[in-house]
Amino acid sequence: MNEFKSVKTPLKIDTCHDADTGNNTDVKTVEGVQLKKSALQYCVTKEINSQNYLLNSAKFANHITEHTDIVLPIVVDTEFKTESLTRLSEEGPYNTSLHLTTQFKFLPSNETRTFISSEFEEHLIEHEHESSIRHPTLRSGFHVIDLLRGEGVDVDLTHDPDVHKQETKDALPVFRVLIYAFYALADVPKLFQGTFLDEFKQEAGRGTFENRRRMISKRRGSFQPGWYAPYRVALNGLEYRLIIDLVDASAIMGNATYAEYCKNLNISLTHKKDMHIVKDGKPPLIERMDEAYIEYPKIFDVYAEEDLKVYEMLEKFDQYMGAIYEKLGLIDYYQESKLTMGSTVNELIEAIIFKFMEFSSLQTDLSRQKKECLELLTRRSSAEHIAQRTLTSVTTDKKKLRHNYHLLAKCDGGRCRNAKPTFISKEGNLFDVDLDGAYSTIMSQLQYPLGIPVHLTFYKTLLKKALSKFDKELVPRLWHARIKTREDLAYDQELIPSWYDETKERVTETYVEDGERKYRKYTALKVDSGKSRIFLNQIEHGILTSDILDVILTEWSPRQRKDFFNKVEIETLMFYPASLRVDTPQELLNTQKEHNKTKPYDFPITSAGCEMDDPTECHSWTSFSLGEHLIDLLKHLRKKYDKKTPENTLLKLIINTTYGDSVSRHFKASNMVIGNNITAAVRTAMYLYEIALNLNGSITDGQVFDANAVLHRARGKFLNMTNIPTAYAKNRKEILQSNTCRIALLNDQPHKYVEDGLLVGNRKYLFKNAEGIDEVAQYAVRPCREMITLMNEIRDIHETYPMYGYRKVYAVLRRQGWQVNRKRVERLWTEMGLCALYAKKRTTLQDKQGRRYPYLLKDLSMTKPNQVWQTDITYIKLAGGYVYLIALIDVYSRYVRGWTLSNTMDTSFCLRAFDQATELGVYPEILNTDQGSQFTSDEWLYACVNCGVQISMTGVADYKMTFLNDDVELKMRSYETSQKEDGRLKKEHAAYWVEWVDGKLELKLDYEEYKYESPAHKIFKAIEENPKKVPVFHNYVKVRILKTNEWSNHYSKKWSAAKIINLGDNVVQMGSITYLSLTQFKFKNIKQSKAWEKFHNRLKLEYGGLGIEIYYLDESGQYLNYERMIHEVDELIRAGEMKPSRYYNRHRHFTRNHSERAAVLKKRETGRKKMRDLIKEKLFPSLEELGVLEEVETFEDPDGYGD
C-alpha cells in the first residue's frame, strides 16, 4: 500500500543578494539559473497525473533541470455567492454567481494561500467596504500564475496555438498543473478570466472536459489526461508547455457531500458548522458569503481553509482500501485506489480474478498479462464489448453482419411498477415490504464465470424450440436471452419488461499498433438509450433468465403458458455451456492453449435456426463463488464495526458497488450475464410479492400493502395470473363473483403465518428474513392434484358439518371411498386451521396477552350519529349446529352499520363486519367492545385503533408516506423535494404566471409559493385533501448547475453567446406541473403507448404544460378532477383504445360555456413564452442589441416538461 509520509527531500539552499531590496534571499541553483525559494520547491519531476495522483517522497527531486518535465500539485477551492432567483425581477442581467475568493494549498505541505477575485474587489469598493480587503487580488488569466508570482516566481504566460504541435513538443518540456479539488465543476472554471477564460469555454465546448461522477479532462483523440492549453509558460526563464490536469475527489465514495466524506474518513472539520449558525435573525452565513467575508473575517477564513483537505481525503481512502485488500488476502495485488468508487471496486474484482487464476503479482509482465487475462476471461461478456456487436460495416469487404448480440449489452433495472393505477390515497393497516440486502444476497449465491461465453443470434425461432435444443447446456443463472412476441399475447402478463426505441451511435476508437496511432470506426449501441416498460400483451427485447423462466413454468396457468411459448421468439442468447465447464484455473488455461480452432463445436446451430459468434474461439470456462471470495467476506468484516463507523460505511459501499460494476460499460471485468441475473432474481421476487400480498406496486425491492386486502385463491383454485393484472379495477364483490381469487386478511385461512414467513396459498413467502431472498425466488413444490382434491373435500365436509371433528371427517371420507390414513387427515386438518364448532358457554374469551383500553362511555352523552359504535358477538342455534353473529350498531341512531355470520369465532369474521361497516368511508369517534380475544388482537387493533400509515401514490415510483409520528417520506421523480433545516427547499423555486395590466398581459413572479413546499408536496397534499377538486398550480422556474455535457452539446448554438455564463454556474430552468403520468397505466402494447404519449405531449405544447388534464378542468380552469381523470384514462387504456383523440375532442369536452377555461389555458401558454423571453434577456443581455435573441435555444428541461 502506498503510504505517503509528510517528509520531503530537503532542497539545496544557497544565499545571494537581492538587488531590488538590498536583502539576502534564499535561492537554489539549477544549471546556471538562479531560482528564489518558492512554490517551485513543491514541483515533482517524476510523472504524476490524474491517473497516478498519490505523492510520495521519492517523486520529489533535489533540483529542477532544464528540458525536464515538472508537475505542480496543488489543492484548490473557491468560495462564491449564488445569486437568488429574485434577480429575475430586478434590472440588469442575471449574474448567476459572485466569485469571492480562491484558496490554494501546496502539496505535500499544509501551507495555504488565499486570494480575492477581481470582481469581488470591485464589488467591495463599489459598496465602500474597501477596508475589508485583506487578501491579494487575482489578476492573471490563469489564477495559478498569481499564486506562483506571489511566491516569488518570475512567470511569463504567452498565448501560442501551436505550442503542442510535434516540432514544438520535442523542443519544450511540460509544466503540468495538477489541481486537486472536491467537485471540480464548481471550482475549476473560476480559475480563469479574460481571454484565458474564453479559451477554456471553447475547449469545454469541444468536449475536452467531462463530468460523469467527477470532472475529468483529456486530450481530444487520445487517452492522455489533461487540457493541453494553447499557452507557453516561462518560469524564471525556463520555458514549458502548459497542461492543466484535474484530480476530482468527489466520487471516491459515491454520491455524498464534502462534510459526509470527511466524516466517513475520520477527518475532523471543526469550523464548518460555524457558517451555518443563524445570526441576528438573518439567514445563515453560508447563504450570505459576501457579508460573512466583511463582518466575520475569522469565521470565513477558517471555513475556507477547511475546504482544502482534499488530499488528506484521498490518502485516508487509499489507506482504508489497502487495509481491506490486506484483510481479503489481496495486498500483493494492491496498487493505487481510483478516483471513482466504481473503478476502485473494479480493481478489487480484477485482483480476485488474478488471485483465483494464480497469477503472481511479482511478475514483471503483470500489466501485459493482466490485459491478456481480461481479454480472454472477462471482456467478451462485458457491456463494452457486447455493445459494439451491432450491424457494422467495419470489414474490408463492407459486409454487414446480421447478428443482434448488442441487445445483451443492456441490463434491465429494478422492477418499478404501479400495480394499481387508479389508487389515490388510503389509511389503514399498511405495511412496507422491503427485501433487506436484496442485491448482495443474490450476488453471494452466484458463480462468477471466467471464459468466453457462447453468443447466438436467432432468426424467427420460437423460444420453445431454442430451449429444447439448448436446455441441457443452460446452467441456472449463467445465461440470459432477449425475446419478443410475434403477435399480441392472449393473456395479460406483468413479469417481463420490454425495451424499445434504443439508438446506436458512430464511435471512433483510437488505438496503437506497431507504435503507430490508428483509428477504428464502428457502430455501437447506446446502452442508456431507449425506454423500459411492461406491456400486458406484447414483449419487445424482453430479458429472459432462469428465474423468470422458472416462474413461467411453475406459476402461469397451462393456457397462458401455451399461448406464451407459441407466440414468443428468441432474438439472441448468451450462455456458458454446461458441457464445457472445467474445474480448475490451470485446466482452463491449458484448454485455451490447446484449443483447435478448426474443430467446430457440437451445438445444434443449424437445426435451431441460429448463428454463432466467434465459432472458432475456445468456450471452455470455470467459475468462482462471488460470495465466498468477496461478498460474504465483506459482510463478515462489516459485522466487526458499528454501523456509523467509516469502515462499516466503506464496506457497505463496496458491496453495493459490486453490482453496478457487473453491468457497467466502462470495465472489462463487468459481466452482463451476472448483472441481468441479479436484477432478474430481485424483479421476480418482487413480482411474486406483488401478487401474493396485493402490493400497490414495486419500487426495486419494496412497496406497501394493505394487511386487510391481500389476494387469496378461491376455494379449490389457484391464483389465476391472467386475471390479477386487472384485479385492481374491481371491487371486492366483483372479485368474489369472478371466482378466481378473494380479498381478505393477510392471515385469513387457509393462509397463515409460519415460523419464518408467510404461507399464502401454495407456498411460503419470506418477507422478514434478510437472508431469505433466494427462498423467495425458489418456489416450493406445488402439492399434487390428489392432495388438493383431498384438502378441498375435507373443507367441503367441514362446511357441511361444522360440528364434526377430524375423526368424524375421516369416517365420512372412508364412507365416500377415500383410501386415506387417519393421521394424514389429522395433519391436513391441522395445517388448514380447521376446528369443530359446537355451542360454548361464553362468546367473550379474554386473551391475557392482548392489550387493554379504558372505558370511555362513562358520563358521555350521545349527541350525534357516528359518535359511538358498539359491537358484540352472539351465537345462533340452527338445526345442524351453531353459527356466530357479530353486529356493529350506532348507539345514537340505533342503525346497524354492519354484520356478519360465521361458523368460526376468529378475528377475521369480525374484521369483515368492520370492513362492511366502514365501506362508505364513515368511521366512529369511539368504538366500544368487550375484552374478548378477537377485540384485543393485533389485527383488530390495527384496523380499528391504530391507523398505521397513510399513503398516497401517483406515477410509477412516486409516493408520500405519513407515519404515526407525523414524519413524512416523499419521493417524486423529476421534482426537487429536499429541504433545509428550516424547512425551505434546497433549490430555490419561483412561481410565474401572467395577468392583465392596462390591457396587456404582464409576467408575474412569486418567490414565496414554492419556498417551503415543492410542487411535489403541493400536488400530493391537494390530492389527499380532495382528489375531485385539485388546484391547478402555477408553473415554476428553478436553478440548476450547468454541466459539461450540456455545455458541449449546445455550445455553438447557445452557450457560446452567453458572455456572463460559465461552466458550473447556476442557470435558470423552466418547469411545468404534471398531474397525469402515463407511465402508471397498463398499456396493451407499444403502439398503444406511443399513441397516447404523442397525443398527451401535443396537448402539453399547446396548453402550457397541461395535456389530457385539460379535459378534466372545471369551467373556471382553476381546478382538476384528478379522481375522474385517472379512472377514465385507465378504463380507456384497459379497453385497448388506440386513438385517444376519438374520446378526447373539443366537441365532446369543450362547450360554449367553457370560454373562461379556454382563456386560462391560453394565459398559461402565454406565461411560458414570456418566461422564456425573460430568461433569454437576463442571460444573454448583449444579444437583444444584435437582434438575434430568437436564435437562442429555449431553457426548458430536456424532456420539455417537469424538472
TrEMBL record:
It holds the Pfam family HTH_21. It comes from the Eukaryota. GO terms for biological process: DNA integration. Residues 861-1035 form the Integrase catalytic domain. One of its GO terms (molecular function) is nucleic acid binding. PANTHER family: TRANSPOSASE FOR INSERTION SEQUENCE ELEMENT IS904, TRANSPOSASE INSF FOR INSERTION SEQUENCE IS3B-RELATED. This is Putative transposase for insertion sequence element IS986/IS6110.
